[in-house]
Amino acid sequence: MNDKVSGNGTSKAHRIKNFGWEGSGPWSQRAAYLSSFFEPQPLSLDDISAFYDTTNDLCYLAMSDPSVVEFIKEGNYDLAIATDYEFCPFLLFDIAKVPSVVSYVPTPLFPWNLYMSGVPTTPKVYASVLDAEHNQGFIHTTWHLIKSIYIIYYSVPAKSRNQTGIARQFYGPEVKDGYSLAHRTNILFANSNELLEKPLPLPHKIKYIGGLNLGEPKPLNAEFDRILSNAKRGAIVFSFGTQAPMKFVPLKIRKCFVEAFKRFPDFVFIWKYEKQPDDAELFNNSTNVHPLEWIPQWDLLNDKRVVGFISHSGLNSFNEASHAGVPMLTVPLFVDQLHNAKNGERLGTSILLRKTNITTESVVDCLQRLLSDDRLVNVSSGELYIMISDI
Fold it and tell me: Mind telling me which InterPro entries this protein's record contains (predicted)?
């Protein structure tokens, strides 16, 4: 579905079944923000219509290929795990007679995840992850009320009808309704950490598992150890993650960061950076900046010589920095990243820099605050860090 993903998500599965488009699918074309993520995103009633259009197409491919259901049946599984963004997995597992189904989201909880699971979603309490200003004024609350009505009474039922209709086209009218199947899920796992989210009244079927995938950090290799050893006052790790390739970051934005980094000669900056045709002179006279195509992010964040993290605040990066107790300068780009950045700002573990406000001076100002505000360090590596470590 996403041609930027090269792996299959597991190293331990005994059986793997692949299906989808030959070549690049339509997701990259439909999700325009993946290539223009420094542009402001307009307000929308249906935030992920492009995603659902794509999953409808993918559902058709799965249902029209009998080998998919047969593969599931042959596994004789006792339990299936479905993504809670759509209805097709629940339909597939029910057709294949899997007795128990749990669901997961690799993001924070969206209102439609809660609604699909049968949780009442009062708009004042359950704000949208994609409308994450955390401003509970009248205008914001009214907008979210309208959006919630649209999601609950039109968007989710329509998506259920579409994918249920696809399943019935190939497996007959007796196929159960997708929403009723999703509603019956036994457990919903969310990839966020309850200590990092705003408190919500939730049933026991919803479990936070953010950070579950984090193993023990490994010792750094000689190259990274040398770089950190050359830092007089510490190192800052910089990464926009895997979904924001450097070719889509405008040169003027990259220049702002490099020029800002030059003003902090006592610190080194380790930047996850893919070399570009237009950057021949970008790093001239910037001996404290180390652009590298790959970095061991989790291992670096756990090295005591690292004193800060510049991040897009994707959920995995946000979880990693929080578990490592490293203060952040967040530059959210799309989807749930502003929500995560706002949570960090609310907790006092991060400074938020808007992607539309990036200049050399704004980066310098944020870095000065990041490197001099003792409260950021105390909160990140203090009581909150201890509480997260104890979960």
Answer: UDP-glycosyltransferase, UDP_glucos_trans
Q: What is the rounded distance in angstroms from the CA atom of residue 346 to the CA atom of residue 348?
A: 6
**346-366 confidence digits (pLDDT tens):** 999 999 999 999 999 999 999
Task: Point out which residues pair with 207 in neighbouring strands.
Answer: 189
Nearest to 210 by CA among 132, 138, 315, 285: 315
Q: Note whether 45 and 144 are within 8 A (CB).
A: no
Q: Does the residue 137 lie in any domain?
A: yes
Question: Radius of gyration (Cα) for the chain, nearest Å?
Answer: 22
Based on the fold, state whether residues 200 and 226 are members of the same structural domain.
Answer: no
All residues at 6 or more sequence positions from 283 whose CB lies less than 8 Å from its CB, including other chains: 258, 289, 291
The answer to the question of residue 214 being in a domain is no
Smallest CA-to-CA distance from 148 within 52, 46, 41 is with 46
Of 302, 321, 306, nearest in space to 371 by CA: 306
CATH of the domain at 382: 3.40.50.2000
Q: Per-residue pLDDT tens for 16-58?
A: 888 877 766 676 666 666 667 777 776 666 666 777 788 899 9
Within 13 Å of residue 372, how many CA atoms lie on the same side as its CB? 7
Residue 22 placed within a domain: no
Mean pLDDT calculated for residue range 130-156: 76
Q: Identify the CA nearest to 291 among candidates 227, 226, 368, 360.
A: 227
d(CA 36, CA 249): 8
Give the strands of the sheet with 328-330, arranged side by side.
Answer: 289-292, 267-272, 234-239, 306-311, 328-330, 350-352
Query: Please, what is the average pLDDT of the chain?
Result: 88
Which distant-in-sequence residues (6+ apart) come within 8 Å of 369 by Cβ?
Answer: 351, 376
Q: Last residue of a domain, which of 167, 186, 208?
A: 208
With a cut of 60, say whether residue 4 has pLDDT above it.
no
Residues 278 and 339 both lie in one domain: yes
Q: Which has the closest alpha carbon to 266: 297, 305, 303?
A: 305
Rounded-to-integer distance, Cα 67 and Cα 155, Å? 30
Query: Does 217 map to a domain?
Result: no
